[in-house]
Amino acid sequence: MNMTARTFVANELRQAREMKKLSRVKLADEIFVSESLIAAWERGRIVPGEQHHPRLKEVLDLPDMITRVIGDLVTNEVSPEWFGKWPQVERQATSLWSFQPCLVPGLLQTPDYARAVLEAAHLDIDLEEALATRLDRQQVLIKEDPPMFVALIAEAILRHRVSNDKVMNDQLVRLAEMTERENVVVQVVPADSKACAGFIGGFVIASFDGDEIGYIDNQLDGDTIEGAAGVARLRRFFDVFRADAINQQESINLIRRAAEEWK
Length: 263
Known about the structure:
Cro/C1-type_HTH, DNA binding, alpha/beta, DUF5753, 46% helix, Endonuclease, Chain A, 6-stranded mixed β-sheet, Helix-turn-helix protein, 2 domains, 11 helices, single chain, 14% strand, 434 Repressor (Amino-terminal Domain)
């Protein structure tokens, strides 16, 4: 059987961990990720993100050759759990403009909220690995020189029950807390806004190197939009929705009141 770059790296990571006599739990603690993400790396299901490379090299004493393979080959492959090329775009973006009519954006979800969303989707995936992947993507917002993330959310998201009251309270508290970061803006589009008639599905626009790429969510999968005309249409939708959104401070106050209601 031919060994792919991802499989090669997965084997090397597992062997390096075992040589250091580290459990997956201990390694996860050392590099500040979840045990399930370590397992996904060692199975070759997910590629270690760039933000983890220095710590992996330090803790496992990885040879330069292995880190070059990770950097030059593996990060160019597409993980089956991730939607096409979008995670690569997300990591390189200088700005991310998100609109969501039904759910809190994935980059802002708590683990329990994300788990409930993935479970409800009934996808043919390994739940723990999919959850680890989603949570790992969130590192893009807290890395050095993170992108500006502007999230427009429909007011209905604050009322939609995902899992239980505690999960909802924790999620909305987290949502408000994330706005304390200079690179995160969250604005709510009120339920009585005329713009609600245009709420068909969620989407994200990424800006980098003078270019823009869009990503559209749907019930089964997602589509990356690279054509200028398609991205321009998404940008117009975003601008129309944002024009009807309340400002950040009013949005935070609304989110915090909604969180209290879920207690």
